[in-house]
Amino acid sequence: MNKAFELELVEEEHQNSLQKLESKLPKWKKIFFSLLNSLYHRHLQENISSLHSMLYYLQNFIALIQIASIIWTYDFPIQGWNDYRNLWKVLMYSRLDAICVESSFIQNCIYGTYSFYLALLFMLFLLFILKVFKKPIPEKLTFFTKKLLVLASVGNNSFFLLLMMILKYSWQKTTINEYTKTVSLDQGIFGILMSILLIIILIFICYCNITFNYDTKHINAHKSYYGKSTSKITKVSILVNYSTITFYCFISSSYYILYRGILIIIHSISAGMYCYYLPFYNIKANFIHSVFHVFVVISCFLSIIGYYINSTVFCILGLLLLFPISIALWFFVMNYRVNKIRILEKYAKENVKSFELVMRDRLLNPKIEVIDNTLKLLNNYQNKSIDHVPKMFTVWFASFCFYVCMNEKLAIVKLNTDSKAESSLEEDFQEYLLKREITKSISKSEEYQLLSKISQFEKLKKLDKKTLISVFTFLRNIVLKDPIQSNLEDLIKKFKNNLKKIMKLNTKLTIRFQDSIMFLEFYANFVDFILGDKEKAFSLNSRKNNLKKYQEFKDGKQNQIFSEENPLILTKNTGKIIYTNTHIEKLFKSSSVYFSEQHIQSIFPKSLQYFSHKQLKSFENKTLDSIKYLDANIGIIDSKGYWIEASISVLLVSLSYPIYMFICRPLNLQRQSVILDKNGIILERTEEFDSYNEDGLDVRGFNIEHVLKINFKDLRRNKNIEIVLKSDIIFVMYNKIKVFDSKIRVVSLYKTEESVIENEKNSNVKFVSCVKNKEKERKIYLLESKNTFKTNEETLLFDMNKKNHSPK
Asked: Are residues 573 and 624 in the same domain?
């Protein structure tokens, strides 16, 4: 096989490949997200137990005591401060570093901290490597890594303080003033390097814990302490805590007032952000996290005043009185903010965070009577900023569609918007989590099963071509005058690997898609012509033939829309054709290149102008219920310009972005038809209709009266007549399809009554004879079924004329 042929195969796959349209994360991101999903346990959809709530409050209380110990230090220069020395010691003993110093285990504590973070980093790296190479991951390894991550989260501030103290005294080599006991924290150059390295690791792990250990979906989030709209406020809070610890280590002992003044400023900002943005869906969580910063502000304020008036009693009594009053007032401030949140409604158009706050109550506590209105508000906001809508908003919208409306098909369409807005790793992860849940549900729907089947078949064919290329490459090299043995061995090895892969994939897909004829046929041919196993090939062909008979029987009983045998076209909302399967190409007797140059409107009758970019885009933006755009017998125009009578189903689906899925089912009708305008001028015709013209020319542009020698007004009035053309009796039927404010007028010709009865099912029709011969006395007969052109009840665009017409 030459290189030109190889390039041709690659180019063909690139131009018309369903796999190219599928939503795919970069490999590293997919592995990273999969690892995070296995490590972090999100609490959003849980009913929080009393024990869990108690542990949550206890954790925050310990953090409060720890931060108090670096504000109310034992060496604060105020008169009478040493009288409460035991109180300051109790506060100090809430910290890991102080406990280790007082118990003379500081060196063990230092090396234990080093070991803890290095071990955690190694375990994370090992898990990532196992994920990369798709190796089984031991459950115990995942379990212990989870526990270490929890410990790192709980002890984050304590570990950071210890590492900063080691860094300070390894660098400065000065006397330690922060503890009541004299110890050495000097670890030399090794201590400096290790402290810097571990601080970086600590910050990375803290970033992961904050960014990925929560769920942004609103469903049941009012019960959780971890559900929130964004992690940005929490990151600011952690940064403020790190800054507080850093200032404590380096300036607190020398600049008492400056240190506390800085803390008042930065913690006021953090507390205000919690109150203003309300990042957590649970109001208690917002209050608890902000109270932490309020406590720091009150403590620093009292310590500064106490320093200037030189009174320890003022500091203690002030804290006991002012702090409870402050948090009570703060609670009312936050509730006032929540109750008055709707004043932001006029700004909601410009700020997605403000819009989420306005909509939060609707999303957290959806009521049946306002669900439709909530959907409209979400949809309107998305449409107004469709090109720059943040990904987090699409996650909120899609999760509402999925969990509240229980409409997974609409959810995946709203999630995969073709937005140009840049997204963060955090937003991508939240999208990944939601998409996993939606995909599990949507994989059961017929349209997505069909797309998955086609995609997997493409993958199989691609591997088959790759295997054949390796064979031809080997044969090409072996006929050379002096083939290099090592090259031949490599080619044989490559061929064996490809052959092993394709055998494994064939077996897997035939088991997965047991109702697929194309997989069985492909596997049978592979076994027969490549492996030479005639017996197995015969068995597979027998299965295929039995399956084909069963499906033909099933098609007779049911209308199989999502069959792999049906012609299929995928388009963008612009109408540009981006994918065609082999069946539509056979129907048109054209290649995928022909379709790639066409707009979808060009393969439908010109009188039907309902596939423009404006109309398709409008449906995509406005639909809040069904994803079915059309289901009607409108037919298509083939590459030669002939009208093929067919049933067309058009659905809005989503791969990497929303696309339209056109499924064509040619009608097996024994008739010839034309489409007319209101004056009887022929606009489109089926392939054999030209033969009814006297000279056999193209009948388009001719009046139906001229071609069939009939009175068009009589035909419209009677709906059905009999005529004689070329000595044959022809049954003529007139039908009209309403399409909003336009109509498709169809005239069909039948050669026998049996063909009329067979083809015009589901319609009561009477024929009036206008033949001036013996057939004129034929009795008017009644057809027992309804008109073929009746549309599906779910059709959105087309409303067929369902009246029973009788001759006058």
From this structure: yes
Residues 62 and 170 in one domain: yes
How far is the CA of 170 from the CAs of 22, 104, 105, in angstroms? Answer: 54, 18, 18
Over residues 429-441, mean pLDDT: 93
Q: Tell me which residue of 2, 20, 796 sits closest to 469, measured CA to CA.
A: 2
- 204 shares a domain with 78: yes
d(CA 245, CA 173): 19
Domain span at 732: 672-800
> How far, CA to CA in Å, does 156 sit from each of 208, 319, 559?
12, 26, 62
- Total domain count, the chain: 6
> Are residues 468 and 600 located together in one domain of the fold?
no
Q: Of 213, 238, 253, which residue sits at a domain end?
A: 213
Q: Which one-letter amino acid corresponds to residue 259?
A: Y
Q: Which tokens hold the place of 113?
A: 């901290």
The pLDDT value recorded for residue 173 is: 79
What residue spans of 155-255 are helical by DSSP H?
156-172, 188-212, 232-250
Q: How far is it, in rounded angstroms, from Cα 760 to Cα 736?
A: 14
Q: How far is Cα 83 from Cα 312, in angstroms, rounded to an integer?
A: 9
Phi, psi of 77 (to 5 degrees): -80, 70
Burial 77-91 (b: 16+ CB within 10 A, else e): ebeebeebeeebeeb
Angstrom distance (rounded) from CA 675 to CA 684: 5
- The residue among 624, 650, 666 that closes a domain is 666
d(CA 619, CA 613): 10
Residues 464 and 412 in one domain: no
Query: Is pLDDT at 261 greater than 60 in this prediction?
Result: yes
Q: How many C-alpha atoms does 746 have within 13 Å on its Cβ side?
A: 25
- Range in 151-155, 439-443, 553-557, 645-649 the model is least confident about: 553-557
- Mean pLDDT over 500-520 rounds to 91
Q: What residues have CB less than 8 Å from 497, skipping those under 6 apart?
A: none
Do 661 and 700 have their domain in common? no
Q: Which two tokens stand for residue 135?
A: 């190796």
Least confident of 119-123, 154-158, 682-686, 802-806: 802-806
Range in 433-437, 632-636, 651-655 with the lowest mean pLDDT:
632-636
Q: Tell me whether strands 720-725 and 682-685 are parallel, antiparallel or unpaired.
A: unpaired
pLDDT greater at residue 408 or residue 481: 408
Do 456 and 505 belong to one domain? yes
**Residue for token digits 């469709």?**
386
CA 315 vs. chain centroid, Å, equals 55
Instruction: Give percent above pLDDT 70 in the chain.
Output: 88
Cα 754–Cα 758–Cα 761 angle in degrees, nearest 5: 130
Provide the mean pLDDT of the chain.
Answer: 85
Question: How far is Cα 419 from Cα 437, in angstroms, rounded to an integer?
Answer: 22
